[in-house]
Amino acid sequence: xxxxxxxxxxxxxxxxxxSTIASAAPPDNQAPVSDFSQERILVKFQPNVSxxxxxxxxxxxxxxxxxxxxxxxVQVITVPKGQAKAKAKAYGLNARVLYAEPDFVAxxxxxxxxxxxxxxxxxxxxxxxxxxEVTAGSPSVNIAILDTGIxxxxxxxxxxxxxxxxxxxxxTVDDIHGHGTHVAGIAAAMTxxxxxxxxxxxxxxxxxxxxxxxxxxxxxxxxxxxxxxAADNGAEVINMSLGGSAASSTLEDAINYAWSNGVIVVxxxxxxxxxxxxYPAYYANCMAVAATDYNDARASFSNYGDWVDVAAPGASIYxxxxxxxxxxxxxxxxxxxHVAGLAALVFTAVSDTDGDGKLNxxxxxxxxxxxxxxxxxxxxxxxxxxxxxxGSEPMPPGAIIGRVTDAEDGSAISGxxxxxxxxxxxxxxxxxxTIDDIMxxxxxxVASKEGFQTxxxxxxxxxxxxxxxxxxxxxxxxxxxxxxxxxDAQDASPMVGAxxxxxxxxxxxxxxxxxxxxxxxxxxxxxxxxxxxxESSSLTVDVLSGTxxxxxxxxxxxxxxxxxxxxVTDAEDGSxxxxxxVTDGVRTTTTDVVGQYTIVDVPPxxxxxxxxxxxxESxxxxxxxxxxxxxxxxxxxxxxxxxSPTMWVDSISFVEKGKNLFIEVAIVTxxxxxxxxxxxxxxxxxxxxxxxxxxxxxxxxxxRFKLGKAPVGSYLTTVNSLxxxxxxxxxxxxISSASYALGG
Length: 744
Prior knowledge:
single chain; mainly beta; Alpha-Beta Plaits; Immunoglobulin-like; seven-stranded parallel beta sheet; five-stranded mixed beta sheet
């Protein structure tokens, strides 16, 4: 593949040659050598050295031939990391070696000319600049950013946006929130344009697919619609720095649709610092991305677990901000677009090796198979390495090895067939097997033998290594049955049509109340019998091979609770008594604004019901509750002489001032405004936000509350409490709530 660099000045500084490590060490005044690979050296043998002789030297010195440079016969040798200099010296001391030297690094492209690149530590960590030496991506590869939108006028993004779509609640595709703009810059900001920052995807283009509202949230249906639209309109990569904690079949269907159409789908793993799955990242056809920090440790906020595929830098990431700005953000939201941008690069560096007409499977395998193992558990394949992912050299194959044993006693099973879906091998006398020449990726290994149940597991093969897949097979056992009867607990009559299940199979009882669960493998089972109108019953039975286990059930009718309801009124004038407490001795409720109450979930029986309220004499009456019915019980309460005067809310008014909304509450008594009254109220907006306020009335009996930067919408304010020493709140007077519409 031709390596292209766009508008970059290449400056190569030649340092003294360091030829043949076997020679004397360079003098102190010699110019220092440039950086070199820590795990590769260059070796050239004497002309008369045969290939077997060279191979023996490699074996003795621990080197492996990676390639031979044509024309000059120099071999590129891989050695353990950090031993390049020492190994070059060891090779150079061998008389059959003409020369050996480290594989030095020539500083060519270095970094793009975007001034903010020096702040993008994540780009350096994933070796993005080195990847651009191989491929800078292509404008024909589109990255769909499903987010809060993208700043359409940002100088580092505007010319990258090739299409826009809006599936969120906002009236505009522009980014009002700011999250999507930061994400888009990481994935594919204009690179090497002399301003701002660089994007991992370099020359790749962006699709602005707004699925979240201007408050940063959105529905799964909006996200699913955005996925489908992006897949149908030319996206090769979809990035979703978003997620929810609830699973959704709709969301999974959309992910699968995109994957089946050749799209790589990437999503943030979440920021709760736990193993809790986030969706859509959790789904198999979506790459779940955790976040790492500058030290290649998992960021403290990042989710992790066996469902997380890869990691990428996500702590203090510098990228584009709305209003043409730049700044830092942290989160797996920032890690995900690193992977999305890399996927766009890899699309230009792979071929359809499996002939399915799509590249997304090769792209994903390449990214996962070339990650750096940074020693952090719970992030799948490791932290991405862009340079390795776009390397033109094929990755060396690996292998799968293991042993097949009898699940009962652990003995070896010889002659078992083991397959990775392509190759089939047989286990030897010790139960061992080996499948060679396996390309990096995930494989389902299946082991089988006549007389045993087939077993399988999934393993991941890393380039140049052997994955271990040990399997145990259980002998095939003749199934048994579970049989019995179900009767009514009250009269022992057979119960027809009851459902009986062992957790796998389900049957219903016949006219005599009997049932049989057939073909039940040997084992222990929790069997449950149930029927509508009856309480279900469960018991545990052990099924032996070829035998019938007995499980008889007796079901009791479900008793449906009833209720007690009615009115509580003032004995003097028949007016409703609001807020009166009504109790049956176990459950308590209060009357509403019309004096009505209902006590629910009351088991059938007789009850002494009492109604009471401060300022009234309590009343107790007897009532009988019947199953499934509500018994009526009304109360008439006599007032007790009150020692305290009453107060009430006389008015609630709203005042708009600029972007602020003021709520003024007037507290009065029979003698006028009441100072020193403590008022608590709640204010609910139609957008779902709720505010709580409290304050004390002034000398005129008024108290004012302020809501700064009030959102446009409808408001409902409710006085929750009103207290003042020496006074009683008379809720039958005045008002306790009011509504108001702001803007719109």
